[in-house]
Amino acid sequence: MKDINVAIVGGSGYTGGELIRLLKFHPHVNINQITSRKHAGKKVSDLHPNLQDVDLKFTDVDDIDADVIFSALPHGVSMNIIPDLLENGSKVIDLSGDFRFNDIDTYEKWYGIEHKYPDLKAVFGLPEINRELIKDANLIANPGCFPTGAILSSLPLVQDKLVDHLIIDSKTGVSGAGVTPTNVTHYPICADNVAPYAVGTHRHMPEIQEQLRSFGNYDVNVSFTPHLVPVTRGILTTNHSFLKDDSLTTDDIYELYLKKYADELFVKVLDDNNIPSLNSIRGSNYCHIGGINIDENGHLVVISAIDNLVKGASGQAIQNMNIICGFDENESLKHLGLYP
Amino acid sequence: MKDINVAIVGGSGYTGGELIRLLKFHPHVNINQITSRKHAGKKVSDLHPNLQDVDLKFTDVDDIDADVIFSALPHGVSMNIIPDLLENGSKVIDLSGDFRFNDIDTYEKWYGIEHKYPDLKAVFGLPEINRELIKDANLIANPGCFPTGAILSSLPLVQDKLVDHLIIDSKTGVSGAGVTPTNVTHYPICADNVAPYAVGTHRHMPEIQEQLRSFGNYDVNVSFTPHLVPVTRGILTTNHSFLKDDSLTTDDIYELYLKKYADELFVKVLDDNNIPSLNSIRGSNYCHIGGINIDENGHLVVISAIDNLVKGASGQAIQNMNIICGFDENESLKHLGLYP
Amino acid sequence: MKDINVAIVGGSGYTGGELIRLLKFHPHVNINQITSRKHAGKKVSDLHPNLQDVDLKFTDVDDIDADVIFSALPHGVSMNIIPDLLENGSKVIDLSGDFRFNDIDTYEKWYGIEHKYPDLKAVFGLPEINRELIKDANLIANPGCFPTGAILSSLPLVQDKLVDHLIIDSKTGVSGAGVTPTNVTHYPICADNVAPYAVGTHRHMPEIQEQLRSFGNYDVNVSFTPHLVPVTRGILTTNHSFLKDDSLTTDDIYELYLKKYADELFVKVLDDNNIPSLNSIRGSNYCHIGGINIDENGHLVVISAIDNLVKGASGQAIQNMNIICGFDENESLKHLGLYP
Amino acid sequence: MKDINVAIVGGSGYTGGELIRLLKFHPHVNINQITSRKHAGKKVSDLHPNLQDVDLKFTDVDDIDADVIFSALPHGVSMNIIPDLLENGSKVIDLSGDFRFNDIDTYEKWYGIEHKYPDLKAVFGLPEINRELIKDANLIANPGCFPTGAILSSLPLVQDKLVDHLIIDSKTGVSGAGVTPTNVTHYPICADNVAPYAVGTHRHMPEIQEQLRSFGNYDVNVSFTPHLVPVTRGILTTNHSFLKDDSLTTDDIYELYLKKYADELFVKVLDDNNIPSLNSIRGSNYCHIGGINIDENGHLVVISAIDNLVKGASGQAIQNMNIICGFDENESLKHLGLYP
Questions:
Q1: Reported ipTM exceeds the 0.85 cut
Q2: Which of A37, B228, D163, D260 has its CA at 20 to 30 Å from residue B94's CA atom?
Q3: Inter-chain residue contact D174 with B188, CB threshold 8 Å
Q4: Angle at C192 between CA C186 and CA C196, to 5 degrees
Q5: What residues of D are in contact with residue A288 (Cβ under 8 Å)?
Q6: Chain A residue closest to C182 (CA)?
Q7: pLDDT, tens digit, 9 for 90 and up, residues B144-182
Q8: Omega of the bond prior to B143 within 30 degrees of 0, cis?
Q9: Which residues from chain A sit within 8 angstroms of residue B201, using beta carbons?
Q10: Touching chains, C (3+ CB pairs < 8 A)
Q11: Predicted confidence (pLDDT) at residue A97 exceeds the cutoff of 90
Q12: What is the Cα–Cα distance from D121 to D137, expressed in whole angstroms?
């Protein structure tokens, strides 16, 4: 397999930094461009001080030419540049929300902007549901961080239409809010705190719901409540539901998960149904699942843990690239979590 | 009102320290004894380094004589000493779980021990439901930390029988685990982490359920999932449910909460239904409620925030003492939260 | 003593919030105005969510009339309004750096701005050195947060001219950076991190040095290195030096500190020379001192701990107000630290 | 180069976990044994939940046979097993303090135990001073975490005998205290706190001093003050001193560091003398150096940052293994820091 060139558009944020960190030693990849309109000319290590050994400077956004292009631009901005990149023959993996929705009305309602390219369709880049489609895709919509954790915790339930309504209670690290300081990410405010936000109004809700409805082929409902917790990386998803069939046991459900993910490289259903936590997947592309339990009132819990910047963003984007390019799916993603 | 003497039994832990911190400047209270079998003879400030100005030593547990006695002993231990204290004519406020259950079978099932005094009944010391009973009580079972946050977030719903099942997803600070170091409370493990635990098996579930069933006078079900978060103090409760009457709006529910708690000193339903967070009630006896929302799928969220060591333990115990003794209910509890 | 009216100018920041939190239950004080040009008209609790029970709105900065006025404005801004306030007969306690320097050249060099009122002199409001002068002052320059911890850890050494050079290595909580979010205070950057900054260039260095030279009446040198640590409140000062007289022992120095601070309400030299830490003084006006040690190479360490927002700012400002007004020096400042 | 077998003795702690995390994908290494007397028979992932893909169980300590053996046992225990391992022909890299001292009296004084093998000499495994000796060593004493950061921040100063006394003020993450929970590592105590400890009495002081005296060939003095900070990984070292030659400038010293470390793979003197911080080296084997400054009072600061579990322990041990075995020195150590 010969080398490919990749470019990262909008590389000054956390997902940009993670793409570089992970791709730096990819045996088949050459990073030939990292753009940042704002920081063009600066060394990459000026913004990503962990990347002292990366000898590259940010460039402006013109003349991007690469086999695979990662767009780490914000939604609304990303959609503007992607059609041209595709026309030039590049494969594009978009980390924004712009092409995640099949239903454009849903996108426009929840994102509050008009979609300029409603006819341009992407493959939703969650390998655990779309691996075959990803292989031949030119445009990947890389899933949102919350949806990655939520959907992976739900697939076996939805596949067999076992539930009507999923209540997703998610706890996210602060890096999910991005690189720009705000009141919400100010250390004295978010340290030693738990802050629910966007209660009932977060745009990852319709993303989860559309994907699960498509996957399960029925109108499963999703409710979603995110919480900001004093953690840098990670999303812990607590998935609450009631089974339609009350004869199913905790063991039955656990077996369902084991079977579903038996061949997945990055989704680990924990031995003995152990409970996942964020400290075990930090910095890695793994999703841990466990803590499955049906209580005496018939209520089911399933828990998943991911690193929002890796499996929830840049790691998954590289996983998609590996699939597209025919590389080993875990190439440059073999890092084990940093524990403690 | 003349002064009273109080004693704290089992005063070396965090709830003991909080009782002293809060009672130190109570105008009607003299702390005349703080016991600790293990640390008898040591200065109180050796274990509670914030209490440099408290000139008291721990004593052994014998000869406790006070008008009001706080027991901060563990469950199973607390029940052994309380009958004698009551017989001596003291009022007792028990911070353990030993006397919280009306149904002794439930206690014995969930705590895994035999109850030695099944006929000794206490008043469940949540002033917001039992204020009148507390006034005349000799024995108060001070509520658990999770139940305090969970019940206060549920009362208006249960009072009007609006819901059949409450899904309580709680996030607790690590001080709730007490003063003894364990693997779970080891800094490298619980920092930068979210760790669900006791999924479906936590003994605060039946406490919440028994109280809500008694208060609402119907068989409401409760499911409870606790999470350990990297916070020192605080419990953030996310209360998920579905209304039986789908004509009710978010505003209707918000009004219900406003009305229910209008006269409460310590329960604040936030203006404009703002979302509570832990950093606003740190160190105080307040419970903040807000973030009330019904989403497009008919799912209701209500959020509450308390300091687990204050409203969730020692502050509430002092509130109970104030009610019993006829002091102002907020005497020595006027502290505003430490923010940031 | 009859009640006084106080105003807080620039009350939307952390020191403003702390002034309100602490003054709210002061028996002799009525807060009659809190100004914020930016937030005029908003409720105080909109910016300080811990102050739900404070029924006040921010006003604009005009027509300030109070017996005592706290200025919590930034340096450079504060100096502009103070002369008029004094002329109206108010006592002013300025929390900025504008009037802390006797030597105006030093101020102008380190703050990089021209001083408009070089002839207006304030009393440096550290009660432990200037209590008598404070009683009669009209204008108090409230000390900086680092200088408070550094000077209190140095006084006994400088009083007896025991050292020529003090190396102050300070670790500060992030609330010291104020209420405005920046890259430096962004949670993902400052969590799980230690970040030295302003190495050799921080303007609290000349403040410490001027005060110690004035107090000791000799040219003691000060070097100062601040570090940002993932803590919300607190400054831990590690004071390194070499004694000129190498016959002095650790015990001698410890005795010197005990004697110096024997009558101080808020400076506690810890029993048995225990080592201070930030968790014991959180939210309180105390300064803990201890950990005094001379090693086998003749190097002396002294450690102090304060809450930067209380003894390092608003608590000390209230202490100064109490002294000026003849109230008990610890009125409304009796809070014990929040531990844990 | 053909594969080697390695064993890890005492693999249940954090340094054991790090050795496995880093060695897992080393192209020339096969981990054939991981011992733990206490946990023999358990899966490695039961104790290191990040290592789900490591299919190994802990064994008892008998019959260890490997080309290279890492001992991650505590000091005092490690020394007992090492002579036999050496006799069997294995190379041994000891992560304890047992063989770090050339002067046995110093060891016995500071560690408080008798050394059983005073004649068995190891090479102090800091490649930046002993690379040539390491190549041929059979026994490596892997440096302590504090000494690694302190020595690397001092070498250029000591090499040219520029200073007489180094004042090392270090801030360490809590993982340095190991895997066993104690009061000191209890989350509610060490979160939101800075805690100096072992002031003037920490046994890494003589380790630093002996190494610097040997390297510089003169009697340089070292004073050392460690602080526990609420960080999981990392040691930030602030190195204070006074230059004997006061004509030297900050630029001169910066150039000295640049030159000294120009060819080192893992020691990075930051561009433009930027200030290091812990978040840039997390999880990596890098040591960042910078923030070099001489203030107006002639006081010099140099700052270094390492990950205590990697360059301060397991990463450096693998670096030593690579040198001994003739592998690329950075094999399996190319990880960039996890930022944020």
A1: yes
A2: B228
A3: yes
A4: 75
A5: 52
A6: A181
A7: 999 999 999 999 999 999 999 999 999 999 999 999 999
A8: no
A9: 293
A10: A, B, D
A11: yes
A12: 10
Mean pLDDT of A32-61: 95
- Chain C residue numbers with beta carbons less than 8 Å from the beta carbon of B335 are 335
pLDDT of residue D107: 98
B164 interfacial to chain A (CB closer than 8 Å) = no
- Give me the helix-helix angle, C104-111 and C204-216, nearest 10°: 160
> What residues contact D230, with CB distance under 8 A and at least 6 apart?
B187, B191, C229, C230, C231, D174, D190, D191, D192, D193, D194
Average pLDDT over residues A321-338: 97
Are D242 and D299 in contact by the 8 Å Cβ rule? The answer is yes
Taking an 8 Å cut-off on Cβ atoms, the answer to whether C338 and B50 are in contact is: yes
Report residues of chain D scoring pLDDT below 50. Answer: 1
For residue A145, indicate whether it is catalytic.
yes
| D141/D146 Cα distance (integer angstroms) | 14
Distance (Å, rounded) from C-alpha C35 to C-alpha B224? 45
**Residue ranges, chain B, pLDDT below 50:** 1
pLDDT band of C297, cuts 50, 70, 90: very high
Residues in chain C: 340
Note whether B322 and B309 are within 8 A (CB).
no
pTM of the model: 0.98
Tell me which chain D residue has its CA closest to the CA of residue A53: D336
Residue A282 near chain B (CB below 8 Å): yes
**Residue pLDDT, tens place only, C78-107:** 999 999 999 999 999 999 999 999 999 999
Judged by a CB distance cut-off of 8 A, whether residue C49 touches chain D is no
Q: Is residue C61 over pLDDT 90?
A: no
Q: Give the tokens for residue C155.
A: 């006084």
Instruction: Please tell me if residue B232 touches chain A, with a CB cutoff of 8 Å.
Output: yes
- Integer Cα distance of B124 and B137 in angstroms: 10
Given CB atoms, is C213 within the 8 Å cutoff of chain D? no
Q: Which helix (H) or strand (E) holds B148?
A: helix B145-152
φ and ψ at C17, to 5 degrees?
-60, -40
Tell me how far CA of residue A285 lies from CA of B124, B161, D53, in angstroms.
Answer: 48, 45, 12
Inform me whether the C-beta atom of residue D26 falls under 8 Å from chain A C-beta atoms: no
Which pLDDT belongs to residue A237? Answer: 98
Active site members of D: 145
The partner residue sitting opposite D185, judged by closest CB among B14, B175, B181, is B181
Report residue B61 CA to chain centroid gap.
24
